[in-house]
Structures are given as C-alpha cells and as structure tokens.
Design brief:
Blueprint: H1 6-18, H2 30-42, E1 46-50, H3 53-63, E2 71-75, H4 81-88, E3 92-96, H5 106-112, E4 117-121, H6 132-142, E5 145-149, E6 157-158, E7 161-162, E8 169-173, E9 186-190, H7 193-203, H8 228-259, E10 266-267, E11 280-284, H9 288-300, H10 323-326, H11 354-361, E12 363-367, H12 374-391
Parallel strand pairs: 2-3, 2-4, 4-5, 5-8
Antiparallel strand pairs: 1-9, 6-7, 8-9, 10-11, 11-12
Helix pairs in contact: 1-8, 2-8, 3-4, 3-7, 8-12, 9-12
The structure holds pyridoxal-5'-phosphate.
Length: 392
Amino acid sequence: MYFIGEEEQQAALEVIKSGSLCRYGPEESRVTTFENSITEKFNVEYALATNGGTSSLIVALYAAGIGLGDEVIVSAYTWIATPASVVIANAVPIIAEIDNSLTIDPNDIEAKITPRTKAIIPVHMIGVPSNMEAIKTIAKKHNLMVIEDCAQAIGAGFKGARLGTHGDIGCFSLQQSKIITTGEGGIVITNNEELHDRARMIHDGGNLWGVSKHTSAFFPGMNFRMDEVRGAIASVQLTRLDGFIENMRTRKYKLREAIADIDGIELRKVHDKNGDASTTMVFFLSTPDLARKFGEVMGKYGVPAGPMYTHGNGDKHVYPGWDYILQKKTYHSNGLPYTHPTYGDIQYSDRMCPKTLDYLGRAICIGIGHEMSDETIDKVANAIRSTAKDTL
Ligand SMILES: *Cc1c(COP(=O)(O)O)cnc(C)c1O
C-alpha cells in the first residue's frame, strides 16, 4: 500500500451509508464504474473486477478453457499464487527460467513447449514488463494463449500499450502490498468478448446475475465478485496510479544514472523504460558471494541490502520456495492433475532452473518509494559507490 487518503475514506463511507454493499444492489454500481474506468485508462474492451489477484488468475485460466491434460508455462520467479492457480485449474505448471530482466526467458519458453502446452503466463515482476514481443511471437507460432500476470505491475506498459493488453487476458491484484490497493481485490482484462463472458460466468456462480450473449455456455461458476466498498476505493486509487508510477520512475532512473558508471555492477535489463512501473531498482554483482558481501557492506553505509535469493530461504517468490508445487501436493488424495496418464512423469526439483537462482542470487534490490527524496537517492547512490570501492 502506498497511500490511502481522505478520498478513499469518503468513498467507502458513502457506500456503507447507502446500505448497498453488493454490486448487484445499487442502480449505479461502484464496481461497474471502476471497471469502466479501467477499460478507458487501459484502452481495452472489457474489464472484470474480482476479489483478488489469485482469483483473477483462476478466472483467466478457466475462461481460457485450461484444465486436465494441459500444461501452462510459468516464470520461475513469481509469487506462488501463479503456479498454484494453474494446479487449481487442474493443469500442470511447467517452470521456465528468467533472464537478466528477472522476467521469463523467451528461449526457455521454447525449450519447455510440449504437445500438451496450452498457455504461457509471463509475470511482470516488480513492475518491469516482460519481453511481450518475443513471447507473443512464440505464442503465435505454437498456438498458445498468453495470460499476463500483472499483479506487481498495474499501470506499467510495453511499447506504448499497458501491460495486460498484450496477451489474451491480463490479471491484476489490488492486495495491500501492490502499487494501488483495496486491501484485497483484482481485475481481469481482455479484448475478447467470449473470454470476458466466460470470466464473468466463472467469477459469478455461472453468471447468475448478469447477462451474457454466450448463454449456451452456462456452466458452474464460483463467487469471486468484488463488493461496492472496494469498488469505491479502487476508483479513487486508480486516479492516483499514474502519479505514483511517474514519481517512482523518475526517482529510479535518477538512481540508476547515479550508479551506471560503476564497474562490476550490471543494472537489471528493462525491456521498455517508458513502461517501467518498478517499485525497486535491481542490479547484479558477478557472483552470489560478492552479492552477499556487498549487501553487508552497504548496511554499514546505512542502506541495508542483500541478495534477492539465498538457497533455503524459503521465499515463495522463487520456485524452490514453492513447496507444495515441487512436492505435487493437491487437496485431493487422487493426486490429480499430476497423476493423469497424459503427463507421464512430471519431475520438479529445487535446482531445475539454475539460471534463475544465479540471477536472483547475484541481484541486489533497492526499494523505491514514490516519495523518496533527493537526499535519500544521494544517500543510496553514495552507499553503493562506497561499497563498490570497498568490495569490487
Ligand atoms: C500478489 C501476487 C499474486 C496474487 O495476488 P493476490 O491478490 O494476493 O491473490 C499473483 N501473482 C503475483 C506475481 C503477485 O505478486
């Protein structure tokens, strides 16, 4: 959460006073208003608000018709909710390496495609766009769906279009730790009417309350609806989004410039600087050992830092921490999807994506607040410069 102000309080209070807290009560639903602001701002045909980022991924996978017998390629660096939602959709996640952008490596996507592959989920981690051009080329060649996990990158873009509009479906989270927030919440966007209608059905008990052109496709759905209080807060948060991003971007590039000339430091690759909504600045050292030492010394200069991955730290943003995925655990004793004969023997191991562990083990991550002052930027840049002098 970056900022909850007076306007959010006012918007929530109005809803509570009205007594109509479900989107299917009031004549003018706040949730619908929020969805309309999203379609306008993101230049996309359809938006569906949900109650979470995980829900949004599940809705997207179900909408895309992904299920038992299918494989979905996911990035080895993402919050565990990404592979978990694939298993919840009864498909098997196939884990692919990241590259020096800390987003999925297009070369490894190609290497992991099998006749069972149905979709790719690129994850725009900590606000930086994946290489959507390369990913879309691969998807087209192999007839795969692209579901963008934009949970950490709402408002970011790639080559002039917002993230979430490059693939077939885009999924967002409004959880407390994301760029804008309603505490919990999510959005699913698409330009495809049928995907949108299917998403609505899935998120709303099989579309019990709405109207769909695709009524012949009625099927059992869940309930992932957003409520009016969050709809009202979300609309206010959305008005703050571009300001937040612009402020963070300006500060981040000031910091990047201030350290760009230091030998031995490699800045994270950013596929499109203009689309960067990053809440962090990342740079690589030459070895994980050096990164550890570098972090320690930075602490002495007043800026605590450390490598983004150390073996055994259990971080559920990096695939070795995805315990229930690597162990193929599910809610049911039949072990599906993994035990389905189509798959053969699915093998996971905590060393299966060594490049990912190498990049994250050598990476130092500095948080960038949208209110970071010039003095703080100078302090951080000086700490990095002094540490480089001491250690490199
Ligand atoms: C936060 C997050 C999710 C899940 O969103 P929730 O709203 O917490 O369910 C999914 N993917 C990524 C990359 C995330 O960071």
